[in-house]
Amino acid sequence: MFDLQWLLIAIPLASGALLLIWGKEADRFGHLIGTAASAASFLFGVVLFAALLGKDAEARSQSTSLFTWIDTGTFHVEMGFTFDQLSGLFVLLITGVGTLIHVYSIGYMEHDPRRRRFFAYLNIFVAAMVTLVLASDYLVLFLGWEGVGLASYLLIGFWQHKPSAAAAAKKAFVVNRVGDIGMALAIMLMFAQFGTSAIHAVNAAAPGAGDGVATALGLLLLLGACGKSAQVPLQSWLLDAMEGPTPVSALIHAATMVTAGVYLVVRSGGVFDSSEAARTAVMIVGLVTLLAGAWIGCAKDDIKKALAGSTMSQIGYMMLAAGLGPAGYPFAIFHLITHGFFKANMFLGAGSVMHGMNDDVDMRHYGALRKAMPITFATFALGYLAIIGFPGFSGFWSKDKIIETAFGENLWVGLGALLGAGVTAFYMTRLMMMTFFGDKRWKDDVHPHESPKVMTYPLIALGALSLLGGLLLVGDWIVEWLEPVVGEGEHHELAIPAIALTGIITLVAASGVALGYFTYGTKPIAAETPADSSVSVFTRAGRHELYGNQINDAVVVRPTTHLTRFLVWLDGKGIDGFVTGLADRLGETSQFLRKPQTGFVRSYALTMFGGVAILVLCLLAVTLA
Amino acid sequence: MNEYITLSLILFTIGAVGVLVRRNAIVVFMCIELMLNATNLAFVSFSRQHGNLDGQVAAFFVMVVAAAEVVVGLSIIVSIYRTRRSTSVDDASLLKS
Amino acid sequence: MKTLITATDLPPIKAPEIEYALLGPLFIIAGAAVLGVIIEAFWPRATRFWTQVVVAVVGIIAALADTVWVYTDLDKVDADLVARGKVAAEGALSVDGPGVFTWGILLVFGLLSMLLFAERRLEGGMSAFTGRAADAPGSASEAEAIKLRVEHTEVFPLALFALVGMMLFATSNDLLTMFVALEVLSLPLYLLCGLARRRRLLSQEAALKYFLLGAFSSVFFLYGIALAYGYAGSFELSAIDTAVSNRSGSENMLLASIALIAVGLLFKIGAAPFHTWTPDVYQGAPTPVTAFMAAGTKAAAFIALLRVFFVAFGGSQWDWRPMIVAIAIITMFLGAVVSISQTDVKRMLAYSSIAHAGFLLVGFVGAYAGVAGSDRVTSVSSTLFYLTVYGISSIGAFAIVTLVRDSGGETTHLSKWAGLGKKSPWLAGAFALFMLSFAGIPLTGGFIGKWGVFSAAYSGGFWWLVVIGVLVSALAAYFYVRVIVLMFFTDPVGDGPTVAVPSLLTTVVIIIAALGTVGLGIIPGPVLDLAQHAGAFVR
Amino acid sequence: MILTILAATPIAGALILALLPRETGSHLRAKTVALGVSLITLALSLVALAKFDPESGGYQLTSTHEWISAFGAHYAVGVNGIGITLVLLTTVLTPIVLLAAFGDRLPDPRSTNAYFAWMLAVEGLAIGAFSATDAFLFYVLFEATLIPLYFLIGTFGGPNRSYAAVKFLIYNLVGGLLMLAAIVGLYVVSSRQGEASYLLSDLQDLDYSQTTERLLFLGFMAAFAIKAPLFPLHTWLPDAAGQATPGTSVLMVSVVDKIGTFGMIIWCVGLFPEAADWASPVIIVLAVISIVYGALLAIGQDDIRRLIAFTSVSHFGFIILGIFAFTTTSMAGATLYMFNHGLSTAALFLVTGIMIARRGSARISDFGGVQKIAPILSGVLLIAGLSSLSLPGLAPFVSEFLVLAGTFTRSIPAAAVATLGIVLAALYILIMYQRTMTGPLKEGTEGVTDLEPREIAALTPAIVLIIGLGFFPQPMLNAISPAIDTVMSHVGSNGGKSDPAPKSPTIVDAPAEEEGGH
To answer: What is the mean pLDDT of residues C361-389?
Structure first.
């Protein structure tokens, strides 16, 4: 049965292609096909997962090769897939959340003339994402990797008539490409080093290859991961990516695609375990992004961008956890899953809000929406409680575990993570307050209303998941489940008992909530964004996304532009000019050489006479020499 | 012996210079004839030197050829003279560059 | 004055033996020429023109047939290198492979040129030659001559005399014969150059220049002969060769004679710095004559050049090779470069012919005589092939020049040729074909020719000269290509050129030339093998 | 025999077209004749493919006849895996080009026959060049392709066409003539060592002195480096492609320029392995420069056709890099790249050509928002563009990655710098797509209607192949690899390099060891 796991990919891919080719006739039911395909893929995923549960631990990695993709010289790649504990979880997350978001989109995109195409793209995304997680070879993984990149490009730029959307799409793709350099080089290095890029082979051989190689591999993979997961320094594209339709933000830029980087690191555990340096790098990247994202999240008034900042920050948590090695891997995945639930939930909630607010995204125009759209509010609240780590909610368990492990690794890292928790609580509270509480600030022509059921049901489902996601940890189930894949982590003894730490974390979060409440919940909020000059330097920096774009411009974009201009000049004036110059010289020489042809026979005779003299002389010269 | 060769060389050079400096086609032509005869002198003296008759025979050939050249040359020059009413070789310089 | 030669010491004079069979072609052409003169004297004017044509054409064809026959049973000479033929006419001529091959191509060129000479459709029923050369241009008597439709039918015997001169030139085995042959081929050409029907001033000027400079150069040639005689005591090439290899006599005299003889020959092939006459004469002369000269003179003179330098001066090739290398480079470069800025088709072709002389010299300077028992391309065989291709292509090209006309006769200014390709694609296509052949583009004979001379040079150890050669041919290609651009990619100015409809004669010439150019490019094998078969010179 | 027929068919078709009387109106007869001939050729090439045995690395379908005995030149044809690949490329692309060219507006419609005749002539000569196994024959055909292209550019191109045509011809002629010197040299060398022969097999057995070998190599390389434009000899390409009609550009860039890279493998590396090895450092550097330089210049272009030309410069850089990295992987990748680049560039030139024809301008800044009015067109453009930036799943990715992976084992810096190319590629394609297709509809662009059925029919095969070969490149690689192995073993046994082995190979999933190249 596991030989059929390629169906997980084939079904949505086929439906996507079908929707694109079919044409206008399919407009009426295209969205249904798309959703059905995603659902089918999900159900089959469930079946496979169940089958996996039925097997005993060591038999839980089911590989199959579809065909030989590339085989020449020393280069051999199988189009192979592996359905194991890790990829199984991902398949469920992707197809499951994916299906919910398909359903949601039916309502959300109802009035869009190109809805069929939208569902086609979503299907393609699901297919590519599943390829990414099922791949048993880094090159196949790269295939999925770029596939999701393409899908995200298409979906961010879905409203192509908006120049900002088109620009954002291009930016996302290009920045990801920068990361792909890392991926590509890593795979080349694998071939040069191990003669293969099969994932388990590489990870098995990595320890034997020496520290240098492992570090190089690790850093290159990390570069790729940074691109995909919007980690510093390749974070800048994610906030622009919010130009895409909200379901896209929920599925791709919150729940699944952006977490691919984390998946990559965990998958390459063998590599990272054999290089302390690489692991530390991952940890640092995670920590920095965690704080940076939180910071941005505090400053944005655009609800989607605030959530995007939060996404960055949460993925930072996962990266951090992944950087902690085997001890952290399970919790990275755990948080990834729970985050997938509650963040998708909140994005869809935000979408629902926008739906009711004529697609206005500025939270300063919201306020007091909890009465207008109760279901959205309720579900959103579940997500909120989850992310701030309200005891019992999914986020509580996953984040708690990560911070705990972080303390186990290093005090400062732990403190950073802890701080992050507080800030998270603050900006989420701010968001809640500005959106659902306080007094209404929306214009008169807007009439907020609850979204249709097709949109609210997915919200409810995701809300429930945000609440219950923590169950995965019951009896350390997820840890044991993943252990065969990610290996067993040594357990650090903390200075203080875990329960105490949990308490501290909860306290910090609570204080964050409190701060948020007193800043935004008690006094009225200006309906217009205060000017940069009037806000604190921190807010200003946050609003400008910590000047990431400016830095990119200064360091990369502008130099490249100048270089290009120079080269264009050089090519025309320099290289080509040289050649054309030769041609001109030739013409002049020609004009010059025809002067002696005066037409006077006597001058001709003279030339001949001179010629004679020269001949005689040079002959004599030759013999004398 | 060499004196003859030297003389012929001198005559030859005079002829050549004449060709270069004189304008009148007839004179130019006569200079060429002079060069031919200088050559003849060389032939004859070499013939003497080598003690065989080939050189002298050659001289006769050259005279005949010279005669033929005169015929052709004069005919051309005359026809041009009829057209241009001048025998200056510098006037005939339409074909150039 | 030591001893007087008295009648008593004279040896009994025995009649010279002439191998009439071997020399048949020469006699046929000479005979035809003489016959032509007689016809001039006695034949009624009304039918004289066509009679002359028939005599000339039949004569040439007969000679050609005879040449083929002679070539097929040239007996093999046992030498270190394979050579065919024998020294004939008391050592005056050497009828050998290269020589007879040259006869063949000269006769072919002559035949094609005769067809062009005989073209009468273009000038309203009269040939391209002036009615009465004696009349001053524009004079009343000229007008009357035109009215009476008198024509110079002497052009045919003249051409035949020139032709026989060329054939002699190519096969003459002693310097004196060579000198006579030179004059025999030159004098008629001097006259022919002056006989154009249109633009008579230019034509006469061309004749004058050609004559004066030709005479001038031949005098140097002659003096060189004298010095050679002084050096070796004989006119026979083989005798000179022995003298050279024994290094008897004064070195300087030898070198001077080499230089002066070279002058005469280089003048004829139009190599720099003795090329100055070429553009003016090519432009001024009647186009059929230009075609004849361009193809014939070059071929004859080049073979003579090879013969003298390989047979007579082969022993001192290390002395003259550098000189020839220098001249080759100068000639190629000058011809290629100057032609770029030419505005007159005939002048351009003249400069192109100079450039080709340079390429031929490259093959010549390789002085590669091949290896006994292997049929590698030698300097001689490659030169022979090149001359064949070049001659055919240039006759074709000039034939086309005669067809592009306006009210004033041929319009040779390049700007008038713009858009020719749109007007009459086939004609322009043929001209483009000849241009491509000159440029040495594959699938044309020109390419094979270039390949041959370059390989000869390379075999002779001059690979760097080959590199220079190919670079210069790129330059040369530039202006051939420009002509194509002009004909095909440019729109005609005004109503553009008119293309006169020729009679069958010119058409045939163009078709033969075009087919020959392509044929020699795609299946050069037969002709090439013939050239190879010619082998080395007989000494 | 089949190869001869294959090459002769288009030539014959060309002659027929030349002799067909001119029509008025749509010239449908000439067009259909041309298309028919090219389809027959395609069918014949498939027959040849069927006869071809991919297992063996040697030359097949050979036939040899004496041609010019004095030169030792033969009419000798035959193909190995590399040759058959490129022959297929030619026969597949030509019908596409011709069908797409039905709509071309020519400066002088009366010359439609000539237009299609010249295109067929190019096809025939290219097939000949790809299957020639005699150096002289190869050279003749290689140079002969210049003539039809010269007339195609000069007669049917844009306003500046004659300049472009002359530039094209002279550039290539210079290279070709330098190669002629080398060809002559080959003759001299081979005739010194016995009977002169230009047969590839005979030439490979000659022993050259080191200097001679290097000089001859340079002679060949000069021609090929100009043909497959290698920095800094590339400047003729943008001008030519900027003026020529789309069809001409495709034939020039996708087919004829491949003769250059093909020649590098078969003739340069095949005949002079030692010299090739000696020159490889310089060439690799130039190739890497071409990759980055071409990409950057592509970013800087406003004329779409020049942009595509510069992307080709970049891609040819990859191909040449792959060849001179001297690994089985990179060479196989390079060969496959030739095919894939042919496809993607063809798609790009044709679809943009349609846009340009309808807009009446090739300036990117004259377009905008086309996607709204011509979704299919923009979709095709996007796919073609993505293939040009070698997105995984599309054909060029496989080849590009093989080249890079192979190069990496030879020189990490070269591979690393070359990898920058993938970012730049994303830039030049996506910027072009963004400016032309997205955003609000620019005034003046309304005329850009969507693809007609004929155009879709022409482009579909290319798109299908691009996607199909992205997932199933193996059939082609099966044909290519053995040939590459023979080349590599020849290189290895002649002082050249051989594949570097993995440093710490794994037991698990160790790749199937290829016997060649070790």
So the answer is: 85
Does residue A414 share a domain with residue A404?
A: yes
Query: Do A139 and A285 share a domain, yes or no?
Result: no
The DSSP secondary-structure symbol of B16 reads H
Judgement on whether residues A414 and A532 belong to the same structural domain of the protein: yes
Q: Which of A65, A568, A107, A16 is nearest to A352 (CA)?
A: A107
Residues of chain C contacting residue D196, judged by C-beta atoms under 8 Å apart: 376
Residue A175's domain comprises 1-193+244-258
The mean pLDDT of A463-472, rounded to a whole number, is: 91
Residue C408: pLDDT band (50, 70, 90) is: confident
pLDDT tens-place string over residues A579-620: 889 888 988 999 999 888 888 988 999 999 999 988 888 888
Q: CA nearest C476 in A: which residue?
A: A586
Residue-wise DSSP of C94-148: EEEHHHHHHHHHHHHHHHHHHHHHT--TTTTSS-SB-S-TTSPTT-HHHHHHHHH
Q: Mark whether A18 and A110 lie in a shared domain.
A: yes
- Is the per-residue pLDDT at A182 higher than 90? yes
CB C377 within 8 A of CB C455: yes
Q: Is residue A264 part of a domain?
A: no
Which CATH code is given to the segment(s) B2-84? 1.10.287.3510
Per residue in C26-61, is it b (16+ CB within 10 Å) or e — as a string? bebbbbbbebbeebbeebeeeebbebbbebbbebbe
Whether residues D2 and D107 fall in one domain: yes
* Pair D231, D291 in one domain: no
> Is D20's Cβ below 8 Å from some Cβ in C?
no
Is D267 among the domain residues?
no
Domain range for D187 is 1-257
Q: Is there a contact between B73 and C233 if contact means CB atoms under 8 Å apart?
A: no
In chain D, the number of structural domains is 2
Count of CB pairs separated by less than 8 Å, C with D: 106
- The answer to whether residue A227 is domain-embedded is no
Mutate to test the interface with D, among A61, A72, A136 (most CBs of D within 10 A): A72
pLDDT tens, C102-140?
999 999 999 999 999 999 888 878 888 888 888 888 888
Task: Tell me whether residues C263 and A612 touch, CB distance under 8 A.
Answer: yes
Task: State the average pLDDT for chain A.
Answer: 91
B97/A597 CB distance under 8 A: yes
Task: Please report the DSSP string for A537-580 in residue order.
Answer: HHHHHHHTGGGHHHHHIIIIIHHHHHHHHHHHHIIIIIIIHHHH
Q: In chain D, pLDDT over 70 holds for what percent of residues?
A: 97
Q: To which residue do tokens 């000089």 refer?
A: D215
For chain A, what is the domain count? 4
* Model pTM score: 0.93
> What pLDDT is stored for residue B45 in this prediction?
93
Residues D426 and D455 occupy one common structural domain: yes
* Whether residues D109 and D24 fall in one domain: yes
Query: Cα–Cα distance between A15 and A29 in angstroms, integer?
Result: 12
> Is D309 in the same domain as D233?
no
* Single residue among A202, A228, A258 that ends a domain in this structure: A258
Span between the terminal Cα atoms of chain A, in Å = 93
Cβ proximity of C438 and C476 under 8 Å = yes
Chains near C, with 3+ CB pairs < 8 A? Answer: A, B, D
Provide the edge-to-edge strand list for the sheet that holds C498-499: C409-410, C404-406, C498-499
Give SS3 for A67.
strand
Domain spans in chain B, listed from the N-terminal domain onward: 2-84
Chain D residue closest in CA terms to A572: D235
In a shared domain, residues A254 and A358 = no
Q: Which two tokens stand for residue B81?
A: 């003279």
Residues D191 and D69 in one domain: yes
Same domain for D68 and D151? yes
State the pLDDT at residue C299. 95
**Closest chain D CA to residue A176:** D423
- Amino acid type, D288: V
What interface predicted TM-score (ipTM) does this complex get?
Answer: 0.91
